[in-house]
Write a structure and sequence with these properties.
With 352 residues, the chain is an all-alpha fold. The protein is built from 13 helices and no strands. Helix 6 runs antiparallel to helix 7 and helix 8 packs antiparallel against helix 13. The two termini are 40 Å apart.
Length: 352
């Protein structure tokens, strides 16, 4: 719950009064943690497990959390946005139960649980989500203003973001498992290879804004989404006998596509949204990314189980290829949604 609150609140603090021509540069910095953390984690986890114990994977969060709290109290101004609306408690409860139920159902399915309980959980969760949408559209003071979805650019960007976030989360989740269980590499070695995704993130970052300014958001989003699918699948198809540098290069290219795509999606979200609706757009964009990431890991687990049954081995490389292909299918659907973006979408954010 804490993590879910931090992302939209932090981004809202930065973007609420920002002019359109500054949003692109600000998002470029904000998106870094979501790109870096999942890539550093395998290496950090491998080092911790190898040289300490698995309990430190959780205990290390305590000093990090304390440091974050101290810095927040020192840096963030004690301001409160003016509002004349009441807290939408029914909307909060229904959305929390509905979305939580969807994630829980995905968890049950990822474990191969095709039971009546799973079916009832899925049906009840989807029903609650539908009731939540109905409530938010009818109440005078909704928890989140869904009218922002009437904006074509925003709606298309969120459809693309969910699919993109699914594959973004699945690759660093599956890749260390492939390298350790199928290739027989150590946790540290596997973590080093995954770190090249981070290298790609960092290497392309100084060029992201110039690329967006030169080619435009629509083209960059199409290329980044297609690039993520191609490199994300290819890195799992390379045999263990290939030179390691080829695997590292493919991981680096995956990081380049991740970085460009997430920055473009996170920025174009606000291209045509007026300042008074940025808070709602920000909350929904954060929700799209977090739900997409959670569903991506769940779908990758389901795909791994499916691939394992087809290959008669859960640690077979074929199982991992099936898993990443299954997870890339929603990304492909998101790519089709992004094709509905107007030709000049995001031009308001470009600087020359």
């Amino acid at each position: 719950m804490g993590g879910a609150v931090i992302l939209p609140v932090g981004r809202q603090l930065v973007l609420r009064d920002a002019p359109l021509d500054r949003i692109q540069a600000l998002i470029a910095y904000i998106v870094w943690p979501s790109l870096v953390a999942p890539v550093i984690a395998p290496l950090a986890g491998g080092l911790i497990v190898t040289h300490l114990s698995w309990t430190w994977i959780f205990l290390i969060n305590v000093p990090l959390g304390v440091a974050a709290c101290v810095v927040s109290l020192m840096v963030v101004p004690a301001e409160k946005e003016p509002t004349d609306s009441r807290f939408d408690l029914p909307g909060f409860v229904m959305s929390a139960l509905g979305l939580g139920g969807v994630i829980w159902t995905a968890h049950l399915l990822s474990g191969g649980s095709l039971t009546l309980l799973t079916a009832l959980s899925g049906a009840a969760s989807l029903g609650l989500c539908a009731m939540t949408v109905h409530h938010l559209r009818r109440t005078d003071h909704p928890l989140v203003d869904l009218d922002v979805f009437q904006d074509l650019v925003f709606a298309c960007s969120q459809g693309g973001l969910v699919g993109f976030a699914m594959l973004v989360a699945a690759v660093p989740f599956l890749l260390p498992l492939l390298l350790q269980t199928s290739f027989g590499w150590s946790p540290v070695t596997a973590g080093v290879v995954v770190m090249f995704v981070f290298v790609g993130n960092i290497a392309i970052k100084p060029f992201t804004s110039p690329i967006l300014n030169r080619f435009g958001y629509r083209r960059v989003l199409h290329a980044s989404t297609a690039g993520l699918m191609v490199t994300g699948i290819a890195v799992f198809c390379l045999p263990s006998t290939f030179p390691t540098w080829i695997l590292c290069t493919m991981a680096l290219l995956t990081g380049v596509a991740r970085s460009n795509g997430l920055t473009a999606l996170s920025t174009i979200t606000f291209a045509t949204i007026p300042a008074n609706q940025r808070r709602a757009a920000n909350v929904l964009a954060s929700l799209s990314q977090q739900v997409g990431a959670a569903l991506g890991v769940a779908l990758a687990t389901m795909g791994l189980a499916l691939g394992g049954s087809l290959a008669h081995s859960a640690t077979s490389q074929i199982a991992f290829v099936v898993a990443v292909v299954v997870t890339a299918l929603p990304t492909a659907l998101g790519w089709l949604v992004l094709r509905r973006l107007p030709e000049h979408a995001g031009d308001e954010l470009r600087t020359h």
